[in-house]
Amino acid sequence: MDEIADDNSYKPHARNEARGLVTAVEKLETGFMIVLWRRVLNRFVENSARLPASDQDILTVADIYASLIGFIETLRDDFDDMEAQAKELTSIDNYTVEAKRVPKRNLQ
Predict the structure, then answer these.
(1) Domain limits of the chain?
(2) What SS3 string covers 79-103?
(3) Helix extents (H) in the chain
(4) For 52, what's the count of Cα atoms within 13 Å in the CB-facing half-sphere?
(5) What torsion, rounded to 10 degrees, do the Cα atoms 40, 64, 78, 28 define?
(6) Residue 21: alpha-carbon gap to chain centroid
(7) What is the pTM (predicted TM-score) of this model?
(8) CA terminus-to-terminus distance, the chain
(9) What pLDDT does residue 69 have?
(10) Residues of the chain whose pLDDT is less than 70?
(11) Rounded CA gap, 66 and 72, in Å?
């Protein structure tokens, strides 16, 4: 994306959109969402692969769904680990809200 943003052979609209995407990706929030959704989607793919087998009985399917529900409920407990992975992925330590400038109110 950086290459597209700096390359004058692309249209200005494409370069501006690439700059916006680079800015969005270079946030701790985005890195955290990548880590979170990677965990969730990988777990759902693993369990989805086990479901279509023709020899599955209803109890096995219920166990698979119960394990997914339990997994989702425990994600909150893994917040610190996911945040550390996001910080490593993005090389950013602060959330955007923490880095945002506080506007001064004009007193006149």
Answers:
(1) 26-99
(2) HHHHHHHHHHHHCCCCCHHHHCCCC
(3) 2-6, 12-25, 28-50, 58-74, 79-90, 96-99
(4) 4
(5) 0
(6) 14
(7) 0.68
(8) 44
(9) 92
(10) 1, 54, 98-101
(11) 10
Q: How far apart, in whole angstroms, are the C-alpha atoms of residue 63 and residue 60?
A: 5
Tokens of 98: 């923490």
- What are the structure tokens assigned to 28, written together? 């701790």
Residue 108 per-residue DSSP state = -
Half-sphere exposure of 88 toward its Cβ, with a 13 Å CA cutoff? 7
> What are the pLDDT digits (tens) for 8-17?
888 888 888 8
Burial class (CB in 10 A: 0-12, 13-18, 19+), 28: buried
Question: Hey, what are 62's tokens?
Answer: 């219920």
The token duo for 33 is 């969402």
90 contacts 31 by C-beta, under 8 angstroms? yes
- What 20-23 contacts at long range (C-beta under 8 Å, 24+ apart), as own/partner pairs, is none
Tokens coding 21: 């995407």
